[in-house]
User: Fold Tyrosine protein phosphatase from Jiella avicenniae.
Amino acid sequence: MSYLVVSSLADMPKTVEEHGALDLVTLINAETVVDRPVAVAAPRHLFLGFNDIAEEMAGFVAPSRDHLDQLIAFGSRWSRDRPLAIHCFAGISRSTAAAYILAIAINPDLDEAALANELRRRSPSATPNPRLVALADEKLGRGGRMVAAITAIGRGENAFAGTPFVLPLTL
Assistant:
């Protein structure tokens, strides 16, 4: 089984290349231009356009059930032969939430708190988007444990961008 690799938009091309990823998830504002790396074929790139917000706000696009459904469906189709790269603008909120969600969706035996602690260990700046995590907690039937685990690790360290990191699918 392979792993998930998380980065910022700026680090994404290098991260994809270094890890040999052939699949890519982009979670970013819809109007942001993202150049897909040549190694990633168009059908293997999921672009989810929404803002990094925790509540509905006029003029912004909040993470939705549709975004979550697309994310989980894409992750379930991933072959796991190579790493899956996930990025947002800073590599701190949307992408870390997506990695946390996909790890649990792919391996439902993972303990939510143990995975959240591993996420914090590997990414001190990670601050997973709480709305996306809450939507996933409900959809995956985790009984509030995903939300509680992410709340327990708290807000990450201040950073303009996160450092790329690997999140395993098993602990």
